[in-house]
UniProtKB/TrEMBL annotation:
Lineage: Eukaryota, Fungi, Fungi incertae sedis, Mucoromycota, Glomeromycotina
Highest taxon listed in the record's lineage: Eukaryota
Coiled-coil residues: none
Keyword Kinase set for record: yes
Protein name, as recorded: Kinase-like domain-containing protein
Signal peptide region: none
Record key words, sorted: ATP-binding, Kinase, Nucleotide-binding, Transferase
Domain Protein kinase: 2-278
Tagged with keyword Chloroplast: no
Source species: Gigaspora rosea
InterPro entries: Kinase-like_dom_sf, Prot_kinase_dom, Ser-Thr/Tyr_kinase_cat_dom, Ser/Thr_Kinases-Pseudokinases
Matches recorded under PROSITE patterns: PROTEIN_KINASE_DOM (PS50011)
UniProt cross-references to Pfam families, sorted A to Z: PK_Tyr_Ser-Thr (PF07714)
Amino acid sequence: QFTNIEYLAKGGFSKIYKAVWEDGPITGWKSSNGSFRRRKREIVLKRFNNSENIDSSFLNELEIYIKIGGENFRIGHIFGVTQDSQTRDIMLVIEFVKDGDLHHFLLKHNEIDSTSKLIILRETAKLLGDIHKQKIIHRDLHSVNILINYMYNTRYGVFVKINDFGISRPANEWTDKEVYGVIPYIAPEILREEKFTTASDIYSFGMIMWEITSGQKPFSDRNHHDINLINDICNGIRPPIINGTPQPFIDLMIKCWENDPSKRPTADIIVKIIQKMIDKDMLKDKIELPTIKNTKIVTHPHAVFTSRPLSSMIRAASALQYTQLNYLSFAEYSTKETLIDIMNEKSKSNHNIHNIHNIHSIEQFDKTNQHPKMNLNSLLNNQESNDQDFDFCQSDNLNFENIYHNDNHSQKMFNIRQWI
């Protein structure tokens, strides 16, 4: 039934193809001969890797996705499910959206006007509001999951659809215990091992707002295998505001990417705020968004913008953050005995400390700490004696993990106390 099959892209857990469905979907009924009317059309085949043996949980999630897609025209329509005759992998038959995903659309049409950009955001927020009312959370919202149909001969004729509700994970590893996604779009509470909520989708929407102004994916200049990125996001680090972004837009974007999920607006409130911006634009009280520069975007070689399992990285980042904070708290204690008691107590509860292998000494710990408010040197009061004791630490190559667990000799521990 499928011809002209053309490979398009590879996702985290699937491959995407463009094809022609020769029979096409049912479009009506022929009363003359008592048969369905069909029409050939271009479609997308999404093949799930290693999906020949799937369980009922995956099928249940697919059923929900297909159901809400049939009820809401703003969701990428799924015509049905088929199976690869050779690999036996499951494939979704999805409508083809001619202008592709939002990220590549912005790169191709960097001259698009501000009102069209605002309409894209408004329609995306409308859809989020629709699914949130059904108690559905997307969980993996980013610019590649937003599809665009742009009507070139009409004024602001932009049609937006969203794909991949809850199915951006391996078909053969269907579990809610693992977090899947793209780190720069994931809300900080998820990176702190909390549960997904509708507010988590709103954070992702805030990142998409930034991408609309920049033409770049957030944190594309960072190494996405580095757990420090996770901790930076949890500590409130966000992409830099693009010059020329209007203040009402900035205010909404900052609200969407608030660290505290309870302070983020709902999708319905976002729609109303963006509509006011559009109305001002129509009345010539312009809300001008920055024009995306037609320059080559430099992306870090280890930036990853496909969905992948992240739970192990999140746990490691959490352990590192916990260890750094507790290490800094040593400055509050002035006696060797108190310091030993605190470290012994913490070592009982912190079972993740053994997973930290990239901090080998106090010197390296200080260098890896990128948060300016947490610079160790700023905590030191007596600079001359501190420098001397710090040299002592370097020469003895003290291991931070051992120090934390009180496994060093007492003389070395005493010098750590003196250094603090």
